[in-house]
Write a structure and sequence with these properties.
The complex is a heterodimer. Chain A is of the alpha/beta class. Chain A folds into two domains: 241 residues, P-loop containing nucleotide triphosphate hydrolases (Rossmann fold, 3-Layer(aba) Sandwich); 70 residues, no CATH class. Helix content of chain A is 27%, strand content 23%. Chain A is built from ten helices and twelve strands. Chain A has an eight-stranded mixed beta sheet, with helices on both faces. In chain A, helix 3 packs parallel to helix 5 and helix 5 packs parallel to helix 6. In chain A, 44% of the residues are buried. By secondary structure, chain B is α/β, with parallel strands linked by helices. Chain B has a domain of 42 residues. In chain B, 39% of the residues lie in helices and 26% in strands. In chain B, strands 6-7-8-3-9-10 form a six-stranded mixed beta sheet, sandwiched between helices. In chain B, strands 2-1-4-5 form a four-stranded antiparallel beta sheet, covered by helices on one side. In chain B, helix 5 packs across helix 7 and helix 7 runs parallel beside helix 8. The chains are: A alpha/beta, B alpha/beta. Chains A and B meet through helix 6, helix 7 and helix 9 of A and helix 7, helix 8, helix 9 and helix 11 of B.
Chain lengths: 324, 262
């Protein structure tokens, strides 16, 4: 499926525990293993609170895992400090969900997009005008927007500026945390077109967080489904509807409303809500909401097993679980 | 005979005309979706129906007729008997409309006692029973919780349960699922469909999620810049409409097995 020599970043057994005031432990990410390939998009899907943002935040050093390592260019980036960390940051950048709160409202767009470049001494102060114009034109905005403030722009335009800022340093990896969720569908479409075009031109690797499976499958090369801190299924993006077999991924797929669906079909939402991450049940985390739960699901936690090239599932009904 | 007939209304905030010449007719036991981008005036329209326009907003032309009565000429007392009983509203985040420092049960009791003279104990029981009817697990625990102790999806279902206590003939829903996860969204959508099937409630749902709008609606209204751009039966809007904006909007909806960008 993917060429191993294109492997750019690999997370191995990444676990993040938070301790709560009551002395209990909350496991936000449990033994997460994921790979990012050069020029490809990894879509990470799950309900709120499943740990998808926690994981992506490790990549940009907004948080550090409790255990495990993240290898980038052969180096474990979770242990970096000082100068080395500063240098590494320019290779991995982030676009946040809400473009209106991720900018300093008192800075002009010119200063916003050029700040990373000035930080790393890539341009001189006098080159700002020229560079800002170039970056804005890259994201299909008029160069004159450099003189505006964030509040003078629409949500879609602001998100384009956020993309320009993230790409200013020409990073290898860009993490996008629900980067289009706050936008209207028609704007969302144009922003995604922009992102995929820039990805092709610059061969950028993207880690995209989203909760809408229908949307993310339209531009991901690889999709990982996360539930309560565990990766339950990883599959190639273009074969999502035919391959997807974990009961939770199927439920997510069933919950997608689109205009081409059969409207007479009664939607069958999964029952209840995910249990509190403070008391994740023994065995499979999805057991209480799964309609195919077996006795073994309550005893042993299924491990992620490859059942076909590029397709891994953590479910006792598939892979290792069936033979055992 | 239409249950609700919005006849060419204009809505202004101060001097700025926000909604222009908007007409929607809704029959009993039908669902109407209002879709459009943010700022297209869709929320303003349904707020006008319930007389809940924010300060400075007013209907400056046209008329809103509910069961042969003009809603624009009602007195405060008439509004009180209509709102929450005949016409209910669900907001984007039902948790935010409740008092954060009061138990959900207390808010619920207050709501019931506004519309009916019964004892607090009976009102509490009625509230818990209503939560049970809406298939919320463990109604007593919910009645004894504060809004912030419940998840977003749960709060939304409590909001629906409150709105449905008196089996209103008309339910107005303002982006009821926008703040929720897809799985919870599916639960809420299903619940609202069941209200129509079981109680014959008419629903106007305002949403920017065209997928949800299309699934629920009999009639779809497309709004743009304060005007109705296009409206019609669901099949017409989705497949046959020749309006350029409608086409563009429908095309932009991501669909499974649809367009891929990579």
């Amino acid at each position: 499926m993917f060429d191993e020599k294109d492997l750019l970043l690999e997370a191995r057994h990444v676990t993040r525990r938070f301790s709560t005031p009551s002395g209990r432990e909350l496991v936000a990410c449990n033994d997460v293993n994921l790979k990012l390939y050069r020029g490809k998009t990894l879509g990470l899907v799950g309900e709120s609170g499943c740990g998808k943002s926690t994981f992506m935040r490790f990549l940009v050093w907004l948080d550090r895992p409790t255990e495990g390592e993240i290898l980038y260019r052969g180096k474990d980036i979770t242990k970096l400090k000082g100068r080395q960390l500063h240098d590494m940051r320019q290779h991995i950048q982030m676009v946040f969900q809400d473009p209106s709160t991720s900018f300093n409202p008192k800075m002009k767009i010119r200063d916003i997009v050029c700040e990373p470049l000035l930080n790393y001494g890539r341009i001189r102060h006098s080159q700002r005008d020229e560079k800002a114009r170039e970056l804005l034109e890259m994201v299909e905005l008029p160069g004159d927007f450099a003189d505006r403030y964030p509040h003078n722009m629409s949500g879609g335009q602001r998100q384009r500026v956020a993309i320009a800022r993230a790409l200013a340093l020409e990073p290898e990896i860009v993490v996008m945390d629900e980067a289009t969720s706050a936008l209207d569908v028609s704007v969302q479409e144009t922003v995604i077109e922009l992102i995929t075009r820039l990805q092709r031109e610059k061969n950028i690797t993207i880690g995209f967080i989203c909760h809408n499976l229908g949307f993310i499958q339209s531009f991901s090369h690889q999709i990982a489904v996360m539930y309560l801190g565990n990766i339950v299924e990883v599959m190639p993006g273009d074969q999502l509807s035919s391959l997807c077999c974990h009961p939770y991924s199927k439920a997510l797929l069933n919950a997608v409303f689109d205009t081409k669906m059969d409207f007479s079909r009664k939607i069958e939402p999964i029952k209840g809500e995910p249990p509190s991450p403070l008391d994740v049940p023994v065995g499979c985390p999805f057991q209480d909401r799964c309609d195919q739960c077996m006795p073994i699901c309550r005893e042993r936690r299924p491990v992620l097993t490859e059942i076909s090239p590029g397709h891994e599932v953590a479910c006792h009904r598939y892979g290792e679980g069936v033979s055992a | 005979m239409a249950l609700l007939d919005i006849k060419g209304i204009d809505v202004s905030y101060g001097k700025s005309l926000t909604v222009k010449n908007c007409s929607i007719a809704l029959d009993p036991a039908k669902i109407c979706s209002v879709v459009g981008e943010s700022g297209s005036g869709k929320t303003t329209v349904i707020r006008a129906v319930l007389g809940l326009l924010p300060g400075g907003g007013s209907v400056t032309a046209g008329d809103i007729v509910y069961e042969n009565r003009s809603l624009l000429k009602l007195s405060k007392g008439e509004w009180r008997s209509l709102r929450g009983r005949d016409i209910s509203m669900i907001f984007q985040d039902s948790g935010a409309m409740m008092n954060q420092t009061r138990l959900i049960g207390k808010s619920f009791v207050e709501y019931i006692r506004t519309h009916e003279s019964i004892s607090k104990q009976d009102a509490w029981k009625k509230g818990a029973e209503m939560l049970g009817r809406m298939r919320l697990p463990d109604p007593d625990r919910i009645m004894n919780s504060y809004p912030f102790q419940l998840s977003g999806g749960m709060r939304q279902r409590v909001g629906i349960a409150m709105g449905m206590t008196y089996q209103p003939r008309l339910l107005l829903a303002d982006e009821p699922t926008s703040a929720l996860d897809v799985t919870t969204q599916a639960q809420i959508v299903r619940q609202m469909m069941e209200l129509r099937d079981e109680y014959g409630t008419s629903i106007i749902i305002v949403t920017h999620d065209i997928g949800v709008a299309a699934y629920m609606a009999d009639h779809v209204v497309v709004m743009k810049d304060g005007r109705i751009e296009d409206q019609g039966e669901r099949g017409y809007i989705l497949n046959d409409s020749t309006n350029a904006y409608t086409r563009k909007l429908i095309k932009a909806v991501p669909s499974l097995g649809g367009k891929r960008y990579v």
